[in-house]
Each structure stands twice: as C-alpha cells, then as structure tokens.
Design goal:
It is a single chain. The protein is an alpha+beta fold. The protein is built from nine helices and 27 strands. The strands form five sheets. Strands 16, 18, 19, 20, 22, 23, 24, 25, 26 and 27 form a ten-stranded antiparallel sheet that branches. The chain has a six-stranded mixed sheet with strand order 2-3-1-4-5-6, sandwiched between helices. A six-stranded antiparallel barrel has the order 9-10-14-12-11-15. It is globular and about 60 Å long. It starts with 5 loop residues before the first strand and ends in a 7-residue tail after the last strand.
Amino acid sequence: MGKEKLHINIVVIGHVDSGKSTTTGHLIYKCGGIDKRTIEKFEKEAAEMGKGSFKYAWVLDKLKAERERGITIDISLWKFETSKYYVTIIDAPGHRDFIKNMITGTSQADCAVLIVAAGVGEFEAGISKNGQTREHALLAYTLGVKQLIVGVNKMDSTEPNYSQKRYEEIVKEVSTYIKKIGYNPDTVAFVPISGWNGDNMLEPSPNMTWFKGWKINRKDGSSSGTTLLEALDAIQPPTRPTDKPLRLPLQDVYKIGGIGTVPVGRVETGVLKPGMVVTFAPVNVTTEVKSVEMHHEALSEALPGDNVGFNVKNVSVKDIRRGNVAGDSRNDPPQEAAGFTSQVIILNHPGQISAGYAPVLDCHTAHIACKFAELKEKIDRRSGKKLEDNPKSLKSGDAAIVDMIPGKPMCVESFSEYPPLGDTTVCCLWERGWGRTLPGLLTGNKLVAGKSRVSAVLCYCFSSLSAMGRPAVRLAAVHRPCQGRI
C-alpha cells in the first residue's frame, strides 16, 4: 500500500442486527477491499448453500471465519480505499463478542460509524436502555473517538419504504442522545442508507430524492455530501504523534515458515523502522527488527496509525505475546508497571466494591486481572472535589481514586505521556468500565505524581466526567519496578 494517501481506522458500531456487517461488507466489496477471485469463490459457495442472492454480511462472516481459523492474517481484507483515505476496519462487526473485542479496538479508531436500523421496532429496540446503540456510542466517546458518523440503515424497510418522516424522527432522537454523552450533533453526518440495496452508500439514491444531503460544521470549516462514502472522506485527518518514542502494543504473534517470528500490531506513537533495536515489555526481550510490512508491502518506516507486521531476529513466538508492548530500546523503552492510580466511576453495579476487588483489566491489547489495592478517596463525579478519605466501599454512582495492582506483569503508561497506553478498561462478568492512568512514576517507594485528563469508564461498571461531556483533570500515577528512572 502506497503512502500517498493517509491511513485511517474506523470502527463500525451499533445494535445487534442493525446491519453493521451488511453495510461494512458492502463498503469493502464495492471499494475494492476484497479481490475478485475471493468474491467469485464466496459467491459460488453462497449459491451452493442456497443463498441465491449475494449477501455482503455472509461474505464478511466467511472472511472473518477464515481469518480466525488461521488461513490468512491478511488484514487488507478489512481495508478499502476512498478518494482521500486508505480505510481499515479495526474489527469486523456482527460478532457475538463484538463489545468485548471493541473495547481494545475502539480506542484505536479515528472515527466511529454508528449504524441504527430504521425498521419498525428495530430502532426502538436499539435505542432502549437495554439496547446496544446507547452503549456503543458512549463506549466510543469515552474511549476517545471524537468523530462520529451515523448511518440510518434499512431505509428500505420503513413504513412506507424510504420514509422521510421516519428518518427525521430517528435523527432527532439520536442527536439528543449523542449530545448528552459529549458529541456535537452539528459535527456528525447523518446519512439515510440501505446497506443491502446500496442506497446512499456510494452513490445518491433515487429512492430518497427528498434527502438533500448531510452537512457538518466544525471550527475549521464545513463539509457536505450525500453518501456514506463522502462522509468517510470528510473525516478530519488524525494527528499522529511521530515525535514521541515508539510504542506498539502487540495484537498477535505469528510464526511464518521461511520468515520467522512476526509480531503484529498498530503503531501508537513514534516510528518503527527496519534495523531498529526494540524492547518488548513487560517480558524485557530485546531484538532487532529485520523488516516491516503493511498490507503485504514493505515499508521503510511505519507511522502512528499503521497496522503492521514486523519480522524480528532470534525471538521465538513463546518469548512474546499479545499484550506486550514494543518500543525503541534506545529511546525511553517501555517497562513493566507494578501498579497505577486511576479514577473510576461506578455505574449500575449491583453491590458494593471494596479493597480486594479484582476485575479483569484491558489496557491497549493486554487482558489481565487487577486488584483494587486501596480506595484512596471518594470524589465528586462532576467537580472532582474530594469528599472522603479512604472510603470502606464504593457503590453505584460513586466516583473514586483507586490504587490498582495487576495480578501479572503488564505494561501501562501515563496518559499524558502515551494516551493510547494510558487508556484502561475494567471488565468483570457483569461489569465493564474505562479509566485512564495518569503521569508519575514510582522509583523504589518514591511516588512522583502529576496531573492529566481522565476519561473513562462506562457500561455496567465505571464512567468518567468526560463521558458526561465535561473535562476531567485528576491525580494519577504509574508505579514502576524500575531502576533509577523518573
């Protein structure tokens, strides 16, 4: 893949059966993200299985199944091209565990595409308190995805078909909700579409002549268009932190015959180049990078936002794993964190949380149980003002500053230094939540603390002030078992 166009990542979110897979499959197919031979193969299989008409969602599910079985690790299957960008789908939608997979994937997205179904009863099910429309939108915002596109899907199944009134009702209700969680509806493109028939996907639909197009207004100017593809081209180019030291969380590690060990992941900060000596934390493995590839093309350098595979010397697949973080061994290499301090807000938790509570924490691609070692203080969830020192327990609605200790070695960073590695998500059975670790290091027993934003935690467990559309500046720290480093 050439470097003449910018590379962006999008995540497609929405309630189950809203048409996420169909819409995504349509985009990938029509925009050349699936080669012709693969399409012909799957179309033939679809016909043999009694699926006479070609279904985009079925093809997408077939591609995902083949990828999960290890037949291919070609993430270009999830890539397509617009006139302005190379677009990568972070995680193909429609899977039963999409929320779980989305937690780490969404924080890597430059834009979220929220699909809502316009069919009778379908929109209401998704936007209800138990629906995933609200949950996914709040998840995207709290994980830092500040650009949003809304596709009002299944316009061909409204009553009557392609109903302008139904579309306007949905736009009004979704606008009200996303405004509450922090998005500005004036910056969000709403597009009435049919992911199945292709209405307003790549070309204006003759079935919705009443739709005069979408328009978004930002501080730096306005954009307008009619189709979903045009809305993707209107995404603001992301700023990439190339000036920071390298941080690349591993998503997978493969052993490829004739090549060797190939870690795969997304560059979050810094630059990765062949010949660079990298260190993997927390396992403390150091090696040289032999080559770097993206979409089967060798790169002279990989920049933030690039999803790459890189071949390393003399390292076994047993030495490194998903959740490890690669960094430049000569420039602030990543290290193990012994613990960290974070702000959490409890939402809809059925009981009380006390010190010793040990949920599973997701930070970048790591998935490790962490203990609430100490409940340091209870705070006002809006102002951040301290209300109580060392509370005995926390309940739904409470906000607090908590010391957390991972049960296994893991690498996290201060949010102010490396935002993608300071985003943490707490998951435990019925609860899920988000928080951010903040700056400061522990050298020996000395804590060096700082300040930064905390953004949050949501779903059934935690949320932060920024989830309410408010800025949040809080104390926090990363504790490290390191030697003389501050």
